[in-house]
Amino acid sequence: MSISNQNLKFYNSLTSSKEIFKPINKSRIGMYVCGPTVYNTVHLGNCRTFISFDLIYRYLKHIGYDIRYVRNITDVGHLEENSDDDKILKRAKIENLEPMEVVQKYSNEFHEIMEKFSLVKPSIEPTASGHIPEQIEMIEEIISNGHAYEKNGSVYFDLNSFSNDFDYGKLSKRNLDDVINESRKLENVSDKKNPQDFALWKKAADKHIMKWNSPWSLGFPGWHLECSAMSRKYLGEKFDIHGGGIDLKFPHHDCEIAQCESTNKKNPANYWLHTNMLTLNGKKMSKSTNNFILPQEIFDGNNKFFEKSFSPNIVKFFMYQAHYRSQLDISNDALLASEKGFKKIEKAFFLIDDLKVSKSCDFNCDSWIDKCYQNLNDDINTPKLIANIFEIVKFIFEVKNDKMKIDKESKTKIKNSLSVFVEEILGLNFTKKSSVDLDVDLIELVKEIRNIERDKKNYELSDLIRDRLNSLGINIEDNK
Amino acid sequence: MSISNQNLKFYNSLTSSKEIFKPINKSRIGMYVCGPTVYNTVHLGNCRTFISFDLIYRYLKHIGYDIRYVRNITDVGHLEENSDDDKILKRAKIENLEPMEVVQKYSNEFHEIMEKFSLVKPSIEPTASGHIPEQIEMIEEIISNGHAYEKNGSVYFDLNSFSNDFDYGKLSKRNLDDVINESRKLENVSDKKNPQDFALWKKAADKHIMKWNSPWSLGFPGWHLECSAMSRKYLGEKFDIHGGGIDLKFPHHDCEIAQCESTNKKNPANYWLHTNMLTLNGKKMSKSTNNFILPQEIFDGNNKFFEKSFSPNIVKFFMYQAHYRSQLDISNDALLASEKGFKKIEKAFFLIDDLKVSKSCDFNCDSWIDKCYQNLNDDINTPKLIANIFEIVKFIFEVKNDKMKIDKESKTKIKNSLSVFVEEILGLNFTKKSSVDLDVDLIELVKEIRNIERDKKNYELSDLIRDRLNSLGINIEDNK
What mean pLDDT comes out for the span B122-135? Predict the structure, then answer.
């Protein structure tokens, strides 16, 4: 697929409109996505964000771009709301671990979940704690540009001074007055000139373990800063795409823009993309109300919400059934429907090879392929793409039932395109019944046969079955 | 297993003798192992080191210790011999990637290989580039203690001055004169007072991409420094075990000791453990002579050295057949023998459950278990432990063949101990017949049952079997 054939549009949160995607360099794209704070097992809503950007990465790659994909790991400086407690330090206290042990543990877990979802690994996965000098440097630049001030060892971004030179709140469409009105006391404000100012560097309390030397104090960087420092280091002052969950739009991303405008005089990214929320049974996921589920609890069926387990593949397919910018509700029925739907696609895919070939074809493959691309190009419209896929699935079953005709060329085209759209771009796996599942099913069958025949007092057969299963290492006990 | 029952000895490179292991804290151990430089696919010889320390970690854990296991990733500052070329930068040029993309790529690959070998993940896996401030701080301390000097933006460790206060070369049993005589020009020496001095900080050339601000220049840390700075940060000034490949003893580990003595006035670790080399077909592995093999090439059988593929499990078992401090040669015959040996152990393990129980036992289990622990306690003597394991395997087969007797209690004891020694401590996996084989066996069994019952005109059952197999996608045809 050549890049020139594509008219890819993204909905840009910056302009609140769909725009034709024009990369800065002809064929190399820079994309930065805000990654997880590794103080806890990754949230399913976060997974939706990373799955959506995996799809965007895969599609950009598919249409011919080379991409440097940077997704950070926040391992320091992310404070609890209304407190000075670092999320990682708090977890370290609970788990009786050194903070970096917490970071390692949850980074490993995060990577395992991403792997279960078959997500492509980012090109670079920088950590906040690994980029302290870069963050200190950026603070020094912001201070020297007059948009930050030091107070008692901490440094704050000065929104009043910044607003004299730039507009703050471009992304969330807030102006400074809005922000001042809204300003909730996210941090200890005593040192701030104004409550809406945000921390670039915090002096660490004595009990604080994660701290570094700086020109201002032994302390740690503010959360918003790491993304500005690391995106600049690895993607330059101006890159193509910046992504993240919609909850990061404000204040995190508006603060990022302010930091970058203050140092580099420019908004760091041309396209700001945001993924929407995931709710559970119609309500916000929240630990405090117990309306909450972890990815692994879905995969192993160990939860009170769903009647059975669902594979990462099905959860991912389920997520694609809504557009990434739409809110999406996960529920037992929705997952069951997704599973049924995906199995139908899978069945159709494996049917294609065996379809009887005619001289003509009742389906216009080329126009179908065009439609699929149009929907992907339209801000990665996966629900529409999936509708397209079901069209072709329907056609495949109709050919199978002799209601429609397919020719040889279309057969190849359909097989290849389905593989491209479903496997390569959506990153879903078509699998024949796995051998592990088959084992379980076969063992169940043999046990069932044995029970039937034992009830009929066919002990000869039931003993034979017991011995043969034993010799395969499968122990069978008679529930007399 | 309680800690007090153990008399674990390690061969300490520092004293060149086996010593009883006495941890600093009663039940918490700190262990630091030098990890890979991620500029290339991990070397099989390095794998041997990480496998050996995995075993040490597992054994310490088994006998009741809590361990903080730190294994670093070198992603900056490791220079090619006789040059100023950073290994990662050189690879980045070859692969046309940003250095941190090279780091990410080979870190991912390294983790995948470690996972294939089923190694336990370290508690903390710090990177050199992520600890620049800590390294700068350490250099400042060394300078202020008079054991380092700055010249043209670079900082060098002053071995002459250091040797007035401390002995250099404790580990490799060199004295300063030896080192001066041996001193090969590992780096551009023009700025050094003496050729044996080593770099703590190097001023970066303009072309150098990986560089940071420091009090001396825009530059990067010397390779030896990262381990001293990171072990101190995560394990303190004095910890229990420092490990690595034998090639790191000098100069890397002797330099680490010098750096730590200069700053903390103490040798950082009580026990210095070194793993020996792995040769291939009797010769040193080397890319230049093409006598070289990668782990993955063994696993997938895609190499010119071995007649078949060998699983990570077998390669690991093979490695344990030599003591970690002995040189070990990998060859086709050695791997075949290991595979045969491990399969025998595996077979015996799965036989135990079915052994006929007698009232007495011809094998003294307790004294056997004691011997196993004695061998593990004797500097983790795996060849002797494996010999013990083959003793019990022999006994199991003899019981199976009615030549020996086993009682119920011993049966349980042997099964549990084998699992502990082989699975838990050596970290090897016993696997039953693979599920693919199992499928085939189960299908055969079901077909056989069906044929038996059809011959008896039990058509009800034979039809049920046919339908159920069909629904599992297994077609069955009646050979009437």
Answer: 97
Q: Between B127, B137, B433, which is nearest A473 by CB?
A: B433
CB contact under 8 A, A130 and B133: no
What residues contact A3, with CB distance under 8 A and at least 6 apart? A26, A27, A63, A64, A65
Q: Residues 157 to 216 of B: which have CB under 8 A from any A CB?
A: 212-213
Look at B101 and A446 and tell me if their CB atoms are within 8 Å.
Answer: no
pLDDT tens digit string along A269-305? 999 999 999 999 999 988 888 899 999 999 999 999 9
Q: Which residue has the tokens 């490949």?
A: B245
Contact yes or no for A14/A271 (Cβ under 8 A): yes
If contacts are CB pairs under 8 Å, which of residues 90-129 in chain B contact chain A?
98, 100-101, 103-104, 108, 121-127, 129
Chain A residue with CA closest to B440: the answer is A439
Asked if A423 and A389 count as a contact pair (C-beta separation under 8 A), the reply is no
pTM, 2 dp: 0.88
For the stretch B412-443, pLDDT in tens is 999 999 999 999 999 999 987 655 667 778 88
Query: Using CB atoms and an 8 Å cut-off, which of residues 209-268 of chain A contact chain B?
Result: 212-213, 234
Read off the tokens for A356: 């009887």
Closest to A236 in 3D by CA, of A255, A260, A258: A260
Tokens of A282: 């119609």
Q: Would you say B269 and B242 are in contact if contact means Cβ atoms under 8 Å apart?
A: yes
How does pLDDT run across A458-478, given as a tens digit for each residue?
Answer: 998 988 888 888 877 787 766
The answer to whether the CB atoms of A123 and B101 lie below 8 A apart is yes
Q: Which two tokens stand for residue A366?
A: 């080329």
* Helix/strand number for chain A, H first, E second: 16, 13
| Rounded Cα gap, residues B151 and B158, in angstroms | 12
Smallest Cα–Cα separation from B444: which of A458, A473, A477, A446? A446
d(CA A364, CA A357): 15
**CA B455 → CA A11, B448, B451, B458, distances in Å?**
69, 11, 6, 7
In whole angstroms, what is the distance from residue B342 CA to residue B321 CA?
Answer: 11
Contacts with A108 from chain B: Cβ below 8 Å: 121
* Sequence-ordered list of residues with C-beta below 8 angstroms from that of A375, at least 6 positions apart, any chain: A381, A382, A384, A385, A388
Q: With CB atoms and an 8 Å threshold, state whether B449 touches A441.
A: no
Residue A445 φ then ψ, to 5°: -60, -45
